[in-house]
Structure formats: C-alpha cells, structure tokens
Amino acid sequence: MSAALIWIILPFLVAVALLPFRSQRNLVLGVAAGTSFLLAVLAWILPVGPAIRLGPLTLQVSPEMVILGRRFVLEAADHSFLILIYVFGGIWFLGSQQVKVPDYFPGIGLALVAMLVAAQAVEPFLYAALILEMAVLISLPLLSPPGERAGPGTLRFLIFQTLAVPFILMAGWASGLVEANLPGTRWVVQAIVFLGLGFSFWLAVFPFYTWVPLLAQETAPYIFGFLLGMLPVGVMWIALGFLDSFTWLRTSFAVVEGLRLTGGLMVLTAGIWAAFQTNLARMLGYAILLENGFALLAVSLNSSLGLELFAASLVPRLVGIALWSFALAVYHKHGITADLTGLTGVLRRYPVVSSALALAYFSLGGLPLLASFPVRQPLLETLATLNQPVAVAAIVGSLGFLLGGYRLLAALVRSDEKDWQIHEGGIEAVMLGVAMVLLTLAGLFPWVVLRGSLGLVQVFTHLR
Amino acid sequence: MTFLETYALVPVVLVGMTSLVLLFNPNWRWTLLAVAAQYLAVAWLVGLSWPVGLAAIKLVVGWMAGAVLSTVQADADAPSEPLSGRLFRLIVAALLLVVIFTLPSSMRAWLQVTQPVFLGAIILTGMGLLQVSMTANPLRMVLGLLTFLAGFEVLYAALQFSVLVAGLMAAINLGLALAGTYLLSTAQQKERE
What we know:
- The complex is a heterodimer of chains A (464) and B (193).
- With 464 residues, chain A is mainly α.
- Chain A is 70% helix and 4% strand.
C-alpha cells in the first residue's frame, strides 16, 4: 500500500462517490468531514516507510507511487502537512452544516484537498501546475453555482490561475537547463522570472491581486474562505519545495530581495485598502492578501527562523480565515448585510458572531495577545535588522488593517438599544466559541502553536 | 525539408487571421469556425517539432473544445457591440501585431526556436491575452485562454518533448471548454429567469 493511495486517491474517490448523493446533505457532510479527520488521524499514527505488525498482519505504507511514469511521494516528514490540511478540511466540511453552501461543496471540497496533496507530492514539480489548474477548474461550480451569472471576480480568478500554468511549466524547463548546465548560467535568470511570474499569478501577489476582493464580494463567504484559505497554503508549500530543491534559487539575492519587496508591498497595500473598505467580505480578501504578504516576508528571511515563523503562522491564519468567513456566512443566513452600515449595532443582537468576527479580524491583523501576534512580532523585529523600509511598510500596512478593525468595532457597538439578545443558534455559538477560544489561547500560550508547527518544516531539509 | 517545414509560414498567417476573427466577430458560428482553423494551424506549428501523429492531438483536442463550446451557443444570440468598441479592438490588435513583428531576433535566439514557431506562439499568446483582457463574456474569455494556452503549447513543444504534459494540457484545454460551457449555461439560465 502506498501513501498516495491513502491520502490522494482514496479521498478523491470518496469525493467522486459523494457527488450523486449530494441531496442527502447531512450524510454527505458527515462522510466528507469523517474522511478528512480519519485521514488526519492516519497521518498522525501510521508510519510511512517502516512495516508495522497488526497481529498476524504486516502493514507497510510505501512513500512512493508511480502513476503514468510520474512519482507521487509522501514521506514520513510530510505527515504534519497532511494532518494540517485534512484537519482543516474536516473543520470546513463540519462548519458548512450550519451555513448555506451548494450541495456539492463537500464532494468538490474533498476533491480539492486531495488535489492539493497530489500537487505537493508529484515529482517532477512542474506537474503540480497542471494538477492545481484542474483543482481550479473543478472549483468553478462552487464559485458560480447553477442559476447564477459568474461575476468578474470569478472570471479573473480563472484567468490568473490559468496564466500561472505556462509560466510554471516554462520554469520547469529552464530549471532543468540550469541543473544540466551549471548555476550562474543565463538560464538562472529565465527560471527565476518564469517562477516569479507563475507564483505571482497563483498567490495573487502584488500587482496581480485585483481579483481577490472582487471574488470575495461576489462569492458566498464560506466558499471564498475555504478556497482562498486552502489554495494559497498548498501553493506556498509547493513554492517552498522549489526553494528547498534548488540551491541556485534559494541562494539568489534577487529571489530573496524580490520576495521581501513584494511581501512588503502586499502588506502595505492590502492594509491601506482594508482601512478604507466598508464591505467585510472584501476586507476578508485583503486579510488573505495581508497574510500572503507576511508569508512572503517570512520566507524572505531565508533562515530557519523564517521558515519556522511561516509554519507557525499557518494555524492562526487558517483558524482566523475560517472564523471570519463562518461569521459572515452566519450573518448572511440571518439576512444581515456584511458591511459597516448593515452591521451597525449588531453586537447587541448577535453578540457571539459579532465577537467572533472582531476577534478573527484583530487576530489576522496581528493584535497583541491574539494568535498571529507571536509570529508577527519576531518577524518584524528580524525584518527591521535586514531591511528597514520594508519593515516600516509592513508595520504601516498592519496599522492600516487594524484601523479597519476599529471601524468595524465602532460599527458593531454603535446602538441605541439597551437590551442584549442572542439570535445565534446553539451549534453556531458553540462552533464560534471554540474557534474564539483557540485564537485567544494561541495568543496567550504561543509556544504551544510554535512547537506544534515545527514538525511542518521537517520536510524542507535544505531550507531549515 | 518536409511539407510542413516548407510552408511553415502558412500556419503563422492562419493564426493571425483566426485570432483576429476571434477578437472581432461576435457571431458564434464564425467564432467556432475560427477556433477549428486555429487549431489546425496550431497542430501544424507543433508538427514542426513533434511527430505529426502526436501533433494531431492538438487538432483533435482543439476541435473537441470547439464542439463542447458550441453546445451552449446554439440558442444564444450574438452579443452586439458598438462600432467604437470594435475599432478600439482593431487598433489595439494592430499595435500588438506591429510589436510582434518588430520584436528583435535576440528574443527568438533567447528561446532557441525557429522563426515560424516563435511568431505563431507570440501571436497566439498576445492575442489570447488581449482577448481575456477586453471581455467580460465567459465564451470570449475561455476562447482567449484557449488561444493563450495554444500559443504556449506551440512554444513548449519546440522546447521540450513530453507526451504526459501534452496529455495533461489536453485535459486542461477540455476542462477549460467545459468550464466555459458551464459558465455560459448558468448565465443563460439567469437570463431566462
């Protein structure tokens, strides 16, 4: 038995099998969430490589599987990534029970998660581009459900994600030439340019991110959160795999400075736009861009600290995005418009969801005592010693983003009503409450998250 | 010299003409005929680098993509566009073609491909990008993306021979056509409501 069979093919087959039963919503959601959690548990307990004895049976999970001549490799060091991606997949499927999402969300969502794992596992890496493009194509029915006209955000999403494919394939070709010749040849520049453009399209890096707020505005918030929460994590994992594989890439001054500059610009622009934004869905789009910017800055440190900070930022990032989009979906379910006007005084009627939204906002903004702060503080401190203008830009961007949060808070609490009411359902409140406790505890006891995240970076043997 | 190599400039002229038709003509029948002709030229250009049998995959896939897109256009009215819009497209397309034909030979040397392949690929990618940047119509957008990818495939075929990449690119082309069909059908459904 191979690891790819368990963590790629099995969930993909389950996802396909779920599609005909999509009318039985709870069953489908339960199977998708159960499969995700089961795969996360298997990633935790099942060793890849050595044989284990189960009574009279001997079980060995081989790390490699060959499909059509290509290798899909999931080694023991990948188990943390598998746990992360499948736990969060399960959480998203579980949460969707309480909000309005298309019936086929669990099926397509599980297939997407399996494809993200496949893209990370495939060798040579250039095939990841083709797998991710297929993932993007199957996600379209989620972004534009039947009976709804696809908006410009959805079309631009498809355009930019498709534009990435040729550049990544060309980067694969140029990287092959660099490896075949010697580093320092002219092909290095070509490979870096192609890779840079490919990943910029994928990750919506400045200035190719106009589609993110557009998509956020026109798509169901829960779907948007799922897609833009999971997809960039998978893409960044592949990008780190590239950096880890090629010495000429990770030692290139242009790559490190390029990452730092674009990361700083992303944080600065996303933060400033968020400060003037009134729509909470668009603000979520800027929050994701801000997170992507900080992820680039962490990678640009080009050290084990940077890698650890990147890994440590993943859990707060995913919890924050999940909580934010779930809160917006709950508002939507109760007929509340998610902009600063529509949310005026809502805290007194929906205290749990409003608190969750504010907490998610400030956590993603890096407010002290919340989950993202223990990652941001050492990141900015180290960055300031390496490149002060970029550090200042990142701080200004963060302040701009937090300013948007204070505007949100002002709108939520502004009310003439004197009585408090709780309109949220019990399960909604419990789900929101658990996520809020997680974000707060992660801020108060950061070493737990930091220590837990260290396992994620084990796979990058050269970078760490 | 083979027949394909002797007349290698024919597909270059053909992709130039078909991409212009795709950019200007709002009639879906003409559009799909242009797609069919465009993929014939693409297969020809790929055939300059690959065996003809393998290059024919591009033709089959392109025609299949056109056939898939035609399934939802049968009952669709051609979108009308003001003359000023078409004139603007014409000027931009003309400027793009001027830029392409004045590109220095060092660009071609950089990629180490023959002149017809280079020109065909650049025309297709350029016109494809122009198409996607100037439309909000799902059909036009998908056609633009297919044109862009076709240009890339011509170039990539000259640089590397990979049957699996060709197969997966075929799947992506068909997937894009299906995505376009889906987006068009949902738009039409909304209009009927």
